[in-house]
Write a structure and sequence with these properties.
Blueprint lengths: L8 E4 L6 H14 L2 E6 L5 H14 L3 E7 L2 H7 L5 E5 L8 E7 L8 H12 L13 E3 L3 H10 L8 E5 L9 H8 L2 E5 L20 H9 L4 E5 L6 E4 L5 E2 L1 H11 L5 E4 L5 H6 L3 E4 L3 H11 L3 E4 L3 E3 L9 H12 L4 H7 L5 E7 L5 H12 L6 E3 L4 E5 L2 E7 L5 E8 L2 H19 L1
Parallel strand pairs: 2-3, 2-4, 3-6, 7-8, 7-9, 12-13, 12-14
Antiparallel strand pairs: 1-5, 4-5, 9-10, 10-11, 14-15, 16-20, 17-18, 18-19, 19-20
Helix pairs in contact: 1-2, 1-4, 3-5, 5-6, 6-11, 13-14
This protein binds magnesium ion.
The site of magnesium ion has 6 residues, from loops.
C-alpha cells in the first residue's frame, strides 16, 4: 500500500501527512460511507485536519459528526452506531506528527482489504455532490460520556489509591473520572491536554515514567496508570514503584480476567503456551492483527507487549481506559506487586541490527537460506521466522518501519537465552555480507 501502514496513515504534519492527503482520505471515505463520525487527539494540527477531512466528506454528499477531542477507543466506541469512524491521531509519535486511522462499527480498525479499497478511492477522481445535496456536519459532545458509561457498566467497585499519567493527551478527559466513579482516590499527572507534550514523550516507555513512579511512591498509592498520546495503550507502575510494562501486564491480565482463550503476537512470552496451550492464538506483531484474530477465533482476550489490550466484551479496539478500569478492579482484591511476583518470569533478550535499506531484499533472501541451517523443532512463518527449541524460542524479523533486523529470544534459563541469542546474532550478521 502507498499511504496506509498497519496503524493507518501517519507522518509529519504538512510534509508526509499533508492537508491534500487528508482531503483525499475525506473524499474516499465520503464516497464509500454515508454516516461518518470524526474525532481527534490533542495534537496542535488536529483541528486543521479535522476541518479538511470533514469538508471533503460533506462535499461528497455524506454526513459527518464531529465528536471533538477524545481518546482513540472513545472514537471507536462512538462508531458503533455509524458506518465508519475517522480518528485523527499519531498515537505515541512526537508532536509534529499526525495521521488518520479508520474504524468499523464493531470497534475493529480497517483491515488490509478495507485500507486497499480506501487507497484506490484516494487515487480516483471524484465528482463532488451538487451544491444542493452536500452533506451536513453535526457536533456531538457525548462520546466520552457514553464511553465512560459503557466501561462503568462492565466493571465493579474499587476503592484503591491510583495515580494516572495522562501524557497530556485526551485520556485526561476520561480515565481519572472513570476510576473516581469506581470508587478510587485519584491523583493525576500531565492531565492538561497539550499537543506539544510538555510533561513527557507520548510513549509510555519505562524511561518516560519516572515522575509517575515517584508520585506513586510518595503518595503511597496502590497503583500508577500511564497512557500513550491517544489512550489506546496502558501500562502500570506497581505499589512498589516497579514498572509493569506490557509483557508483565499481559501475564497478569491473562491470569486474572478469567479468559479461556487468548490472542497474543508471536513475540509474547511462552509462559502463555504453558498456561493456555492450544487455546492461545498467535498473530503477527501489531495490535490490528491481534484484534482481527480475537474476532476470527472468538477469543476472550487479546493483548500485546506494547501495552494494547482488547476485551471483546467492550470493543475490538484496544482500549487503554477500559484496561485501566479492569486493572483497578483486579487490584482491589490483590496488590499489583503480589500479582506481578506470582507470575513466572522467564529471561527474554532483545537485540536489533541496523542495515542500509538498499540491501533489504538481499537480506530477506539470505535469511531464508541461513535460517535453514539452524536446528530447531519448528519454524513458524507468521511474522519473520520464529524458531522453537526444546527450552526456548527465537524470533528474527525485519522491522516494518525501519531498516532493522529485530531479534527476540526467550528461554528457561539466562545462560540458554544467551546461547540462542549468540547463534541468532551470527545468523543475522551473516545475512548482511
Ligand atoms: Mg496509541
Amino acid at each position: 500500500m502507498k499511504w496506509f501502514g498497519s496503524s493507518g496513515v501517519r507522518g509529519v504534519s504538512f510534509e508526509d501527512f499533508s492537508i491534500e492527503l487528508s482531503m483525499r482520505i475525506g473524499y474516499a471515505t465520503g464516497s464509500r460511507y454515508r454516516d461518518i463520525v470524526i474525532g481527534r487527539d490533542g495534537r496542535i494540527t488536529g483541528q486543521i485536519f479535522l476541518s479538511a477531512i470533514s469538508s471533503a466528506i460533506m462535499s461528497m454528499g455524506a454526513n459527518a459528526c464531529d465528536v471533538g477531542i477524545l481518546p482513540t477507543p472513545s472514537l471507536a466506541y462512538a462508531t458503533r452506531d455509524r458506518d465508519c469512524g475517522v480518528m485523527i491521531t499519531a498515537s505515541h509519535n512526537p508532536p509534529e506528527y499526525n495521521g488518520v486511522k479508520l474504524w468499523n462499527p464493531d470497534g475493529s480498525s480497517f483491515d488490509t482489504r478495507q485500507m486497499e479499497d480506501i487507497e484506490s478511492l484516494m487515487m480516483s477522481e471524484h465528482e463532488l455532490a451538487d451544491w444542493s445535496s452536500v452533506g451536513s456536519l453535526k457536533t456531538d459532545s457525548n462520546a466520552i460520556h457514553d464511553h465512560s458509561e459503557g466501561i462503568l457498566a462492565r466493571v465493579g467497585e474499587s476503592k484503591i489509591k491510583v495515580v494516572v499519567d495522562c501524557a497530556n493527551g485526551p485520556a485526561s478527559l476520561i480515565t481519572p473520572y472513570v476510576l473516581e466513579n469506581m470508587g478510587c482516590r485519584v491523583t493525576t499527572l500531565n492531565a492538561q491536554i497539550d499537543g506539544s507534550f510538555p510533561g513527557r514523550p507520548a510513549e509510555p516507555a519505562e524511561e518516560n515514567l519516572s515522575a509517575l513512579r515517584n508520585a506513586v511512591l510518595h503518595a503511597h498509592a496502590d497503583l500508577g496508570i500511564a497512557h500513550d498520546g491517544d489512550a489506546d495503550r496502558m501500562v502500570a507502575i506497581d505499589d512498589k514503584g516497579r514498572y509493569a510494562g506490557g509483557d508483565v501486564l499481559l501475564k497478569v491480565f491473562a491470569k486474572q480476567v478469567g479468559a479461556k482463550s487468548i490472542v497474543a503476537p508471536i513475540d509474547a512470552t511462552m509462559v502463555l503456551e504453558d498456561w493456555f496451550s492450544d487455546r492461545l492464538y498467535r498473530t503477527r506483531v501489531g495490535d490490528a492483527f491481534v484484534s482481527e484474530k480475537v474476532k476470527e477465533r472468538n477469543a476472550d482476550f487479546g493483548g500485546e507487549p506494547s501495552g494494547t489490550w482488547i476485551f471483546p466484551e467492550m470493543s475490538l479496539c484496544p482500549d487503554g481506559i477500559f484496561a485501566a478500569a479492569k486493572l483497578v478492579e483486579i487490584c482491589a482484591k490483590k496488590r499489583l506487586s503480589e500479582l506481578v511476583d506470582s507470575v513466572p518470569s522467564l529471561p527474554m533478550i532483545k537485540e536489533t541490527i541496523s542495515f542500509k535499506s538498499s540491501i533489504r531484499d538481499e537480506i530477506i533472501s539470505n535469511l531464508n537460506e541461513k535460517i535453514a541451517s539452524v536446528e530447531s523443532t519448528e519454524v513458524d512463518r507468521t511474522d519473520g521466522y520464529r524458531l522453537r527449541f526444546e527450552d526456548g524460542w527465537a524470533l528474527i524479523r525485519l522491522s516494518g518501519t525501519e531498516p532493522k533486523i529485530r531479534i527476540a529470544v526467550e528461554a528457561r534459563t539466562m545462560q540458554r537465552a544467551k546461547e540462542i541469542m549468540e547463534r541468532m546474532m551470527k545468523v543475522a550478521r551473516s545475512c548482511l555480507k
